[in-house]
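> tool_call: predict_assembly(chains=two)
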Amino acid sequence: MSNQQATLDQKSVTAARMLGVEMIEASHSGHPGIVLDAAPMAYTLFEYHMRFNPKQPKWINRDRFVLSAGHGSALLYSLLHLNGFDLTVDDLKAFRQMGSKTPGHPEYGWTPGVDASTGPLGQGLGMAVGMAIAEKHLAAQCNRPGMPVIDHYTYALAGDGDLMEGISQEALDIAGNLQLNKLIVLYDSNDVSLDGPLSMSTHDNVEQRVKAASWNYERVEDGNDLAQIDAALWRAKRSDKPTLIEVKTVIGYGAPKQGTNKVHGTPVGQDGLAILKEKFDWHEPSFTVPQAVYDHFQELVAAKEKQYQRWLEIWASYQQQYPQLAAQLMNDEFKLSDDALNYQPGEKIATRLVCDDALQEIARQNPMFWGGAADLASSNKTLLKKDDNFAADNPLGRNLRFGVREFGMAAALNGITLHGGTRAFGSTFLVFSDYLKGAVRLAALMKIPTAFVFSHDSLAVGEDGPTHEPVEQLAALRSMPGVDVYRPADANETIASWQVIGKTTDRPSVIVTSRQGLPVLAAAKHAPVERGAYILAPAQTNHPAGILIASGSEVSLALQARERLAKEGIDVQVVSMPCQERFLRQSKQYQEMVLPPRLDKRLAIEMGSSMCWHRFVGLNGMVMGVDEFGTSAPGEQVIEKFGFTPERVAAAFKQTA
Amino acid sequence: MSNQQATLDQKSVTAARMLGVEMIEASHSGHPGIVLDAAPMAYTLFEYHMRFNPKQPKWINRDRFVLSAGHGSALLYSLLHLNGFDLTVDDLKAFRQMGSKTPGHPEYGWTPGVDASTGPLGQGLGMAVGMAIAEKHLAAQCNRPGMPVIDHYTYALAGDGDLMEGISQEALDIAGNLQLNKLIVLYDSNDVSLDGPLSMSTHDNVEQRVKAASWNYERVEDGNDLAQIDAALWRAKRSDKPTLIEVKTVIGYGAPKQGTNKVHGTPVGQDGLAILKEKFDWHEPSFTVPQAVYDHFQELVAAKEKQYQRWLEIWASYQQQYPQLAAQLMNDEFKLSDDALNYQPGEKIATRLVCDDALQEIARQNPMFWGGAADLASSNKTLLKKDDNFAADNPLGRNLRFGVREFGMAAALNGITLHGGTRAFGSTFLVFSDYLKGAVRLAALMKIPTAFVFSHDSLAVGEDGPTHEPVEQLAALRSMPGVDVYRPADANETIASWQVIGKTTDRPSVIVTSRQGLPVLAAAKHAPVERGAYILAPAQTNHPAGILIASGSEVSLALQARERLAKEGIDVQVVSMPCQERFLRQSKQYQEMVLPPRLDKRLAIEMGSSMCWHRFVGLNGMVMGVDEFGTSAPGEQVIEKFGFTPERVAAAFKQTA
């Protein structure tokens, strides 16, 4: 490195630091601590290691970068700006302001160059693991001799907070087991967290811990030493394991309160800014970067753009020679033609078993479809039977074995989905969706189509008892914006749900399936699941008494109750509502066709929290739900004890106002 | 150990094994794998190490035992039976049957001798950590020379699944940091999980991992060797650190499919039972234990009962000499006299700051009250300012520093609460309640009064953006059975909420507080928060137009809208509903007094998922909620953007049917 180069590097790091703290000053809000301490490592990574093209921020073979410590957004934005991404000085000035491109935490799909939404700690690490999984799989599946169309690294920058979160351990273990050698984590190790010195709450030895998870460990003693950081990154790239580089830093480096939690989340103030300028020998007006620094970045980026051009050439030949694979890589839908899937009306089959059939067909019809389970594949029925396990030595495998790590699984699935090129699902019991809820939320925020399969969807779980019987999980998932929750009534609705999920690319989907057998309903064949709800059994007369609304296993129960009521001369129509969210997005006209306002004698039936159903029944209606915990006994007995029998449903309908 | 003793020990272990598998056979449901492999370690622990009294299963100074691998319930029940707890052979025969004392997973408060409900993996470890924290604190706080009234160990039995869960890492770190040397975990290391060999999903080196967390590690090579297990337990007790004993076992030991996942969760069958009987030289009819074995257990328990008698003697003198401390140890309520807490109507103060004041007062008035945060004490405002940190070398401290470990914190809080002798709270941002939801659920299932404090309760979080702005979290928590969620409208309701929480001993409580200042409402002074909702501002006429219902920060908004409507001649009453759950438990009469059925023109207002409010407004009413994610901008601007202004509320009311 020449002297001039070294000077430019230092000035560039200072530019990133100063822009970052100036953004925070301007908005009176943000986290200067990490901006000041992590700028050198982020700069070295971006400029001397990462491959990207600021003009093509979605290039599929770019190196991925996940700022797991999402509160360092100001640092990321300043680097994106300096590297020529579509982020102007005005955008930087609008940091954390309404509608700006520079929100408080990085938002995927909103700011060019942001590869994942982060902020909820630990999840960034999980997503980076998923991206590295996707890269390894796609490289094995798609690359051809001389045509490494997928060949990139995944980087993450994590802080102490990330590593304290339990999900970090799950991510470490998953990556270690799979030997994801192209995953490199920079650990901003500054010994301070929000509430004070790290020693108050942790004595974790990170080196020992990551080695225990079969990772390579590298250490940089001085987080301001670009050469040390650079060397560690080179060693990491040569390792045959995933690498964590512990970079020792001083939080808020250069600020008056450096080294303390006072500089973590509070702007440094005008005085602090003056001291920083002095310290870093920086004499520019606010938000001003010398042209020489801009030029330096441009030069570095020009080299990256050449790498992109080389890839484009390969890609052009690849598209010619392997048009199918090329199309597959760019596809984000999967299809399910159901010719081979037939269920006889009257037959009883658990929807988890139908889900199993559907998954086999989807896997057969879509080579880009894969997924796994949190050690419950055998119960969830989500093993792709014709495929092997994805493993360190078998990157072509399509069954992901996440272990009992629900949250880590879900974050990794989000990472796989973010990477692009495949569609992925993950499964566990519905009751354990509690463990991974934070990742469903992030998928919804990012508007990405991760698919979650949750089996054992009600009290019918039975013997395992209340810890394993979901009650409130459906309400929790349905109350979340931006996610569609499907609870199919039978085999036909299960198939239809998967068909809709395949075509859905702008949000995550959750499908919940039954443990117990459910009758196949003739009327549900090719059900309009995409509309969320429909009249499954119409009224017999022009003056029906009311409506039974149900989902999942309670739909056939509603049909039985309808028959019983019919014998008493009470005519009701039955509405199956497999997906509330989709129904609520339909036109008012459609909604009122399915639920005519004049029919306000309504009973909603679902073995779960009643909260979700009141909006459909109103004050004159009733909900037969479950607002207490279940009990341990054979499933049918539990169902009966909680009153989910045709007699009780019929009686309840008669009680509605 | 004499030969006779050794033979009796072996027979006793066999008795535990056989009862366990017979229970599973009888119910055709359960997990024989762990019963067969972990019986020797559980037996050695219970008989040769643990102090308990089967006649006094709630003895406060008993050693605690948490079966973190809760699917091993059959083993626990058989040991409890053999040790003379109130659990008959008939109870064992009714394993997993309706209403039996032997449900599918251990249930605290239901089966004598069960110290914690377990099943959702990993949480048992967290609860054991909490119990050990409570023991350490109470020993320091309450013991007096010659009177060690609190002096016991906490044991947990964990499996591979527990250790794969991220929460296990959080628990390890918390315990290691606090050097909880009286916490001992038996790790049933059988290399198999539900879906197959552990090697599919993990290469974690547990020894290295626990040492990284400052634990002592012991190893038993042969899980059938009682002497080895016994020796390891003795070494563990002498360590100055928490200890994990890795006991190598063969899953389903003795059964035809031993060593494979086929024996994890499927009964062994009559053939398997015959083979087991052969293998263990056991010739008893089903559910039959030789008298000699019962006698052996009785002898061992007699010695334990003597220990209990000695403690009783100490306790008697202690009660005389330190009546206050003794009463404190047996108390499970805390009080809050609010003489010192006065807020001026009109003044604006964030409820998180009022919560801060309340916590200082509660801590002053109740020495048994304590708590901590997941590294957000400074933001949640939950530091007990006159107290030190609870630390390895300062067990008297009352501020628990959990680090960024929400789930581990919540499970530990449950463990502290289960232990008894104190009341504990824990805090984080409302949006991160997602990370610990599973532990709130377990607290609700166990009916224990853990208190959760979640600040930053709405979009008003502002600049941090949608990842940090809760939307659906209130709905998720409210849909959960058995937990009361308080969202106080102002300072007065905040104080009243804490007073109610102090008196609540049969369920967990959640209190959510605002980041932003809220006007102090004169009419809310001594509000009847225990009733969940009340008329804060009555109608002015006998024919009001309708009702505005709100919680938290939206209550003062509703009052402003009411004024605005009044100017237009529209008379509405305002109902403040700080706790939906409590309101729903009131008499129909009270409910209809607050929400008269004839007034069906209703508008509910809350900056969160609308789902929770439809039950109160019906089809003729409306909910002003938030059913999309928030945005990053200053809080007041976000509030305005989402329409939470007096004008918009008034306009919305006029639009209701």
